[in-house]
Protein: Serine/threonine protein kinase, variant 2
Organism: Saprolegnia diclina
Amino acid sequence: MGVRDWFGLGDESKLAQAAGAGDLSLVTSLLATGVNANGICLGVPALYKAVVANHAAIARLLVEAGANPDSPTWTKAVPLVAAVIRGHTSCAALLIEAGASLDVLDRRGDSPLYIAADGGYADIVRLLVLGHANVNLCNATGQSPLFTAALHGYTAIVQDLLAADANYDCANQLGQTPLLAAAMAGRKEVVALLLLAGAKIDHCNDFGHSAVFLAVYKGHVDVVAQLVAASANVNLANDEGCTPLFIAAKRGLRDAVKLLLDAGASTHLSDKSQNTPLLMAANGGYTEIVSLLIAAKADVNQPNQSKDTPLIWAADRGHAPVVQCLLAAKVNANHCNTAGRSALLVAARGGHVPVVELLLVVTADINKADINGETAIYTAARRGHVAVVKLLVAAGANTHLPDKVNPLTIARQNGHHTTVRALLTAQKAQLSALKPPVLCLVKLGRGRYGDVWKSSYLGHTVAIKTMYPSNDAAFLSTLDRAQQLDCPHLARYHGIVHSANGTHRVAIEYVDGGSVRDYLVKLQRRERTSTSTVAVAVAAARGLAALHTAGLEHGRFTASNIFLSTTAVAKLTDYCLDDASLWARTSAPEVLAGSSPTSAADIYAFGLFLVEMETRQAPFPELHDIDVMAGVKQACVQIDPKRRPTAADVLQCLESNAKLAM
């Protein structure tokens, strides 16, 4: 070949160009005139160009004319590798038939068989295996064709490689075998094939990870079950001392925990920091897993290096159901960690009222101090957790402590005025004893004064909210009047379930449909809903009218305090509960200026509520609905309270227009 051909100016160069372009006629003509079949254009042979473009007929002509099947490009790339990378089966078959080298490596050190297995090209893998390619030839990282096929879950390729005696225990540079790769990737069918072939089920990689460990780590519970059924050792720990059970408990994989326990997993094995599976489950708030581990004889008092126990971690995170589960198992409620902190102290520090209540019921040491002399009431006062402070005071916490750890002093320093008032009251009067708390089942969210819990009270499903009004007598009087109301559009108040030092936990009817604020978000996202906006507005107006007829004001009328109901369209909640809140976005101008909330102020808030209803349109909005609400809205948001309609007026207008729309 001359210089002209190499640079694309001679006949050999024309041959290479024609081969790449798929010009069968020109290739045939040039070969007939005696042009060398190994012709090159700019360093790329004609055969390589034909293979890359998948022109199998031209490639065959070139091979039959004497083209070298292993002729490389100037970058050392060969035709077979090019064909395999692109999945060009016909070209690959032709080159194999022509005697191309089957074990040549590309620039990354991958063989054609590895490339085919990695790409999932089962037909090419079969051709290479039949051509006697080395099935155990590994790449630069030590990965074999079987490894990459197992990792990707290419079952047919795995079967062909195993049938060709591929080494199923061949490990890469990190000690990973095909079985570990398949287990980690959740390839259940491949795992079955490898186990059937005799792969070592308990082999661990360089980090100490077994197949069971990796399956648990990635959450592949079905593979865990498969390996457990094949008698895998479930107690093998990695280099950090973590067992599969430890990982399952930490990640909240209940089904995996049950499988491992049934297979004999030890609940006592700990990691290098002496953390146990029970500690990890308690930390994550996984109550069901905690129960499973306790039933399997896990030591509920086993501490870690810092002497933290499952109870301390659960209390610190506010996981009340887990705390209750541990207390039922007779855990030591007064154990302290190396910092001298008990479960009660860390719960008080976090403001976790339900946990504090549970610990007080089992007579946790209320005045126990940590290594700095700080008690539960001090740390709660420092952070302004007034509800916790009131509970601790009612249970007999000592408030007369040195200035360095005095709760009143620190509350004043940090500006927690409500906490200061509570502590001053505690020091002046004999406080009532703590009553057993209502069991809090499910956390619904966090209110202004603490967590809101779903519970059961007197046979009713209720939401438990914590209140500490500034005027206790007025609050109790208003609440008593509110309890007498009987309106389907008002969430019923079932009473006070617990009181201590001016703190009240109120049981309110649990409404199951979510707030109207959430409903409006759905409308904004154009999600379909079955509830009309006018129907919601009518229901809200009926509830407000019932309040005003009884001489009561809502005081906090917002879309967040209206809940959709499967029985009554919508219900108002949180009415009459807060006599001191100012909600800048929904409060009437006169209230923001300092006047007390009135029914007229409620009407102003109702008008703003209609604005919100109007501006978050449904996917197919009814123009009539928007017109109705727009008119009422303008009347409600008058600056002069005397010009606003009454709730009864609003209700009459909405109901009459709603009937016209039906």
About this structure: The radius of gyration is 38 Å. The chain is about 50% helix and 10% strand. The CA atoms of residues 538 and 654 lie 6 Å apart. The mean pLDDT is 86.
